[in-house]
């Protein structure tokens, strides 16, 4: 069947170059699969038409935003359609009095925040990729970001969704009010479902007040353990920072080498903290006192330096290096176990003879340890890397944590999902998937374990 003839007036691309470019996101690629075609939809009606065709023919559909995911949630499966929503990028409405916005899924996160700022508002979720990631992609993974500590993850800002189901049916979930408990919370169910239950084509989000004041503190510590202890000290002081990020010495050295900064000269670990709102100055003073008592060297950064520090944190994942086999993790543990877990990570790195750097959204216990080995070391090093990753998951779960705080399961993390969820829970999730997608055509092999 000629796909272009079956879907007239829709951008269907089967060129080798485009298929290769859209075959994976930024997650580790387990198997490189060739999609049947890449479709760039421009309207809800086109998405419905594609899904009706896919449902009739039993063709898998992999929804895609900007491709910035890091767990393989947008990896192509063999013979699938990659359904790109990047061209559905309109901000449909901003209602400042109601503090909400309606957007299409391809809207870039930063563009929404810029538009909202004209009304003294902001879109709170801010993943490190916020300049290039889409709001629809953020919804698919329930993305977090630096401001999670105070403003929560994407789910906390999503009020309503327009979703096209596997058979092409268009539904709307939720409401345009901040409160609403009519029926089951399908909006929350779709948020974080990684395109396995439906394709999100419209999003109504809650906007927050743009802070009248922001204070940025940089607290450098002689070691990582004391910096991690600072997180708990801030909590005991009963201050809720908007941002509380932890960077270790390896991360600072990498940032210095890449960007010409001098972070490592100031200490072996950094707590980067922002307070905001009318009480920002008072809260900053309390935080500085608490961290200084633990041996931190605390400085209050001016606006230019503060922006640079926050921007450096957003780049802390680093670019791919062809001489390294490197995997970044996304575990979360209760904040009270943060110090213990970081100590365990360093033990694992020593035991498995792998390199390690650690950054964390310390305010909510979400860590992004990155393990790596040199590719020149060959398969033996890759096995050591896998062993370190496996143990990092096992230890996090033993501490009451989770295998993913904000990046999603995707394809890559399926190997660990059964360690966190019992068969009863996994079976229930499969039944939910069957109810929404009985033919199993929506992003197969992602997010939940198959039978």
Name the descriptors:
5-stranded antiparallel beta sheet; 34% helix; FAD; 451 residues; FAD-bd_PCMH_sub2; 15 helices; 19 strands; flavoprotein; 22% strand; alpha+beta; single chain; 8-stranded antiparallel beta sheet
Largest sheet: 8 strands, antiparallel
Percent helix, as a range, is 25-40%
β-sheet strand percentage: 15-25%
| Average pLDDT level | 92
Q: Which overall shape is indicated by the principal axes computed on the Cα atoms? A: globular
Pfam families: FAD-oxidase_C, FAD_binding_4
Domain FAD-binding PCMH-type: 31-210
Protein name: FAD-linked oxidase C-terminal domain-containing protein
Organism: Arthrobacter citreus
What's the short version?
The chain contains 15 helices and 19 strands. It has 451 residues and is an alpha+beta fold.
């Amino acid at each position: 069947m000629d796909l272009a003839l079956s879907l007239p007036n829709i951008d269907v691309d089967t060129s080798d170059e485009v298929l290769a470019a859209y075959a994976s996101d930024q997650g580790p690629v387990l198997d490189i699969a060739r999609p049947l075609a890449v479709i760039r939809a421009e309207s809800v009606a086109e998405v419905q038409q594609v899904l009706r065709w896919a449902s009739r023919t039993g063709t898998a559909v992999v929804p895609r935003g900007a491709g910035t995911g890091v767990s393989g949630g947008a990896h192509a499966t063999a013979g699938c359609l990659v359904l790109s929503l990047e061209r559905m990028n309109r901000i449909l409405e901003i209602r400042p009095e109601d503090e909400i916005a309606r957007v299409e899924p391809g809207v870039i996160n930063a563009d929404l925040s810029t538009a909202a700022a004209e009304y003294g508002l902001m879109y709170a979720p801010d993943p490190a990729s916020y300049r290039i990631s889409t709001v629809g992609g953020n919804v698919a993974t329930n993305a977090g970001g630096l401001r999670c500590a105070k403003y929560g993850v994407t789910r906390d800002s999503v009020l309503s969704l327009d979703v096209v189901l596997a058979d092409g049916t268009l539904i709307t979930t939720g409401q345009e009010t901040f409160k609403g408990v009519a029926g089951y919370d399908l909006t929350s169910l779709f948020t974080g479902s990684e395109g396995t239950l439906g394709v999100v084509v419209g999003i109504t989000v809650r906007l927050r007040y743009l802070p009248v004041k922001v204070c940025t503190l940089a607290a450098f510590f002689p070691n990582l353990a004391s910096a991690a202890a600072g997180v708990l000290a801030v909590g005991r002081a009963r201050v809720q920072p908007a941002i509380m990020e932890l960077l270790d010495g390896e991360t600072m050295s990498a940032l210095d080498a890449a960007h010409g900064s001098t972070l490592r000269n100031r200490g072996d670990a950094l707590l980067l903290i922002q307070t905001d709102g009318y009480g920002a100055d008072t809260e900053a003073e309390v935080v500085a006192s608490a961290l200084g008592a633990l041996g931190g060297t605390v400085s209050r950064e001016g606006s230019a330096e503060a922006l640079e520090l926050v921007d450096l944190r957003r780049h802390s994942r680093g670019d791919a290096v062809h001489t390294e086999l490197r995997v970044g993790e996304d575990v979360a543990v209760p904040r009270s176990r943060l110090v213990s877990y970081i100590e365990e990570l360093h033990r694992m790195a020593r035991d498995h003879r792998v390199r390690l750097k650690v950054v964390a959204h310390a305010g909510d216990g979400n860590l992004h340890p990155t393990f790596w080995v040199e590719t020149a070391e060959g398969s033996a090093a890759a096995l050591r890397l896998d062993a370190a990753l496996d143990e990092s998951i096992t230890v996090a779960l033993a501490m009451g944590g989770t295998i993913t705080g904000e990046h999603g399961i995707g394809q890559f993390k399926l190997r660990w999902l059964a360690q966190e969820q019992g068969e009863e829970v996994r079976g229930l999730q499969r039944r939910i998937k069957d109810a929404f997608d009985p033919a199993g055509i929506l992003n197969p092999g992602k997010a939940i374990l198959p039978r």
